[in-house]
Structures are given as C-alpha cells and as structure tokens.
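## Example record

The block below lists the input lines for one assembly entry, exactly as stored, with component labels intact.
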Amino acid sequence: MSLVACRDVVKRFGTNTVLDGVSLEVAAGEIVAIIGRSGSGKSTLLRCVNGLEAIQDGSIRVGDTTINAPGADLRAVRQRVGIVFQSYNLFPHLTVEKNITLAPRVVKKISDRDARQIASDVLAKVGLSEKVNAYPDSLSGGQQQRVAIARSLAMNPDLMLFDEITSALDPELVGEVLKVLEALASQGMTMMLVTHEMGFARRCADRVVFMHQGKIWEQGSAATFFDNPKTPELTSFLSAVLH
Amino acid sequence: MNYTFRFRDVFSSWDILQDGLLLTLRLSVITILAGLVIGTLCAAAMTYGPRWLRLSVQSYVEVIRNTPLIVQLFLVFFGLPSLGVRLDAETASVLTLSVNLGAYTSEIVRAGLEAIPKTQIEAGHALGLTGPQIFRYIVLFPALKTTYPALASQFILLMLATSVVSQISAEDLFHAASIIQSRTFRDFEVYAVVAGIYLALALALRVMFSGFYHLAFGRR
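Predicted structure tokens for the full assembly:
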C-alpha cells in the first residue's frame, strides 16, 4: 500500500480552483519531485497532504488516515508528516535546541533529557551541532533552513514535505541545504518536494511530477522525464528553467 | 505670600501614610497581575475565539473603555448591594480595577498577537501542536515582548489611578492624605508629599519594569 494517496483532489480558494482533480500516489521510501510554474498548485498540493489546507473534493490518505474525513486526527497525522517551508519559520524567541525540542516535549511528551538527545542527533544530521544554543537570527538562511529540517526530523516522521525550501536562499547557500536532502534521500526517507532545482530533481528523485493549471500534466521517472518531455507545456517550462 | 511651610505636621503622621502606601502597593500589584491575565485571555479570545465570544469580549472592552473608572467603582461598591452583592471597599477596588485594567490590557496584547506572522502559527500546527500549545509556546512570548513598553505604561497609569478608591473609603495613600489634611489643614504640604510619593512609586515601577524586561526578554 502506498504511503500517500491523493484521489481527484479539488482545492478552491473562493472561485479560484487551484487543484483541479489531482491524483497522486507516493510509495514508502519514494522521492517525488513536483515542478511547475508558480500558481500551478504544487505548493498547495503539499499543504493539503498534511492538512494545512482543507480540500473541497476528492480524498487524501496518509498511512491509514483519510485526512479529509470528518473528525480525522490531523494532529496525529502531522506528527508523522514533517513539512519544511520556504521561509524556514523557526521560532525567533527560542534557541536552536528549543526550536527542535518543543514539539517532542509538548506533543510527544518526551522527557527533557531525551528530547535534548534527539536535538543533538538531528543537528548532527544537518551538520549544525555547534549551533545548539544559537538563536535563529544569528544564523545564515542556509543554516536556518537546515535547523528547520532538523526540527521536522526530530518528530521522526514517515514522510517529509519540502515546499521550495531553497527558493529564498542566496545561491551560494543552496548547496548546503541540498546536501542535507541528498543525505536524507540516501537514508530512505519518503519525500515529496516542490522544487526549482532541476539538477537536484534529476539526480535524487525517483519520480518527477509536472503540474500545470492545477492538474498533474505529466510525470515520469527522473531519467526519462527531462530528456523526453511529451507535452508542449513541459517542453516550454523546461526550456525556460534550464536556460 | 507669607505662608510658612510646615512639613513636620505631615511627617508626624507618617504611620498613616505608610499604611495607605501599603494598600496602594497591594492594590497595584494584585490588579496588575489580574489585569494581565484577564487582558491576555480576552486578547486571545478576540483574536482566535468564535464569533459569539469575540463579540462578548469586544463589548466588555468597549463598555469599560468608554465609561469613567469612578463610575464603574461606584456601580460595584454602591450599586451592587441593591442586587444583594455586598463587597468591602478593598475587594470592590481590586475587582473594579482588575476588570478596568483587563480591558485596556486586552487591546494592547491583541495588537501584539496580531503582529505574530501567520507562518509561525502554521509551523506550530505542522509540528502537531494544539491551538492552546501554539498560543502558550509560540505566540505569547513574542507578543508580550513587543507590547511590553505599552503594557508597562498602562500598569503605571493603573497605579496612579488606584487613588480613586479613596472615594469608596478604601484606605489607600490618597485616603491617608485626606485624613492628614483634615487633621492639620496643611493642604499644600500634604498633597505635595503625597504627589512626591506617587512620583517616587511611578519611577520605581518604571525601573522595576525595565529590570524585569531585561530579565525576561533580555536575551530574547
């Protein structure tokens, strides 16, 4: 059984239909990159998968929870689905360690000592062990984003969602964040990522999904997808972003 | 002008002033704590609550902020007994002042809550926190930090406003002044000394609040 199953998902903001019947399955351990022009609905799709946005039609299942069912335990789902945002969204009044230990302590009721051990483990994974007591505003964008990834990992999720996490970074900081993603990929983490980093998508993704006008327009394995686009929309998108 | 100042008459009644000062301090401390709690809860209700709750809290805030404190005080102390609720002067004072300060505080804290970016709240949801947990761990501290200067001035205003409770016979600092005045007829001296004490109190509070700021929010 797939880990994530979206079926005919429709999402509207007012009269504006952002997702227009999207169906997508993601298997455990799979890495799916979602690409497309801005406004194509790719970020919205991610946000629907952990219930940050409610959907108007269709269904989304994560694990064995149908998250659009009435009374679905969204909080339980969110403990198993991490999301990292474009704008990091670290808590500015908390140290790096407290940013990371907050949810384990408060949501999972893990002891302070164990939570700090977790923080030290995930910080090591993103290569920021020495920043444990730093405040977010003393870190570079790339470092903040790596802390945000660590914060999500601390909940030990089954699935990670990455929403254009390198788009706000200076070009020279993109590499350090992508390196963390590659390490996660090699450890078998299931990932859905919205990205503009075509090189990364080609290198690390198992499957690439191209969204256009709220629909999945074309998808395929990373190997064939970029070299043999089938639709003119993808062809023109690729030629725009690759040059 | 050939008036001879006799501050000695005032200072010889220092024990009365001291008792009054203690009540003024007690009223201020209790009211500030109660007002902060009421204000924070009301601000949360106005920002995140359902419509009926927002409207009720908004009505409370508007009624309190648009009527004189002394009228509120008289309503509680002289008016409520008609409905069978009899409060002693100090209790009536604490109650009225807290409800009054709560209304002003809620408007200040609300501005702080609204300044918290939505993305912070979203990050809390994404980590599986409940609404109240997000409020407590993510929103409250930065909101109080940004509004702290406004809160501190409001609290000092409140301390000065406690002088109104002498009108319902609560024996605060200003009440002590009236007693000494009626005994000595040294109006200028009495009120000058009391003004000096209020001034010292206000300045001391200011220093305390600023110290507390560095303690609580200094590093962050």
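The interface with chain B takes residues 50, 52, 75-76, 78-79, 82-83, 85, 87, 89-94, 102-103, 106-107, 135, 151-152, 155 of chain A (CB under 8 Å). Residues 103 and 109 of chain A are 8 Å apart (CA to CA).
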